[in-house]
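Journal club prep — side note

Before the paper discussion, L.F. wants everyone to see what a predicted structure for a comparable chain looks like in token form. Sequence:
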Amino acid sequence: MPKNKISSSFAEAVADIPAGASVMIGGFGGAGGQPTRLMLALRDLGVGDLTIIGNVAGISKTTGYGWPDNLDPIDQGMFFESGQATKITCSFPVPGTTNPLSEIEKAFREGRAVVDIVPQGTLIERIRAAGAGIPAFYTPTGVGTPAAEGREHRVFNGRTYLLEHALHADYALIRAQKADTRGNLQYVGTSRAFNPAMATAARITIAEVDEIVEPGGIDPERVGTLSTYVDRIVQREPGDPLP
């Protein structure tokens, strides 16, 4: 019999995430493809010393980007506001303003967190490489900038490249539109950006979905992540107001 991958609640789905874990959180920017309910469950779990890996990680709460006007924005800064996270690897930890400060920048300025900023294309390639079993790769992105400090340089065909390492995580919290009971996932919109790659790069992948169907309920041409990579799925309540 196939393993039952359906969790009965968001709290159950994240219950075994321990202090000190590294956690990838899907999404492209603002509310786009973000596993909001899983994030809230992890916050409520209360474990600390977390390393967060994301893309646009700290701008929703200060800008409202992508959020309905009648809802308070949520972003990965919540884990720094709660004191649960001590490090983040991401591309955009702060908005283009210093008023108000994002929770991530507050934590950095107060010495409570390490902020590792990675160019967006390099970030997704590091995650993809982890899922593909590629330990490292060279890229020209960042040469001659602060991002190159302390990194190995190498010249290929007269052009300088930087060595970047694959980026793994203990857990990945991702968002998809639909799952079948085996864990195959279908995505829509910006949820295709980081979620599929993150699903392959973590030891345990947990998917938040709008709908769960029986095997065959997803067009094979629309499967964006194979069940092999998905360990748990949990369904949102119909009509959930959160993006």
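L.F.'s comment for the group: The longest helix spans residues 120-132. Keep this in mind when we get to the figures.
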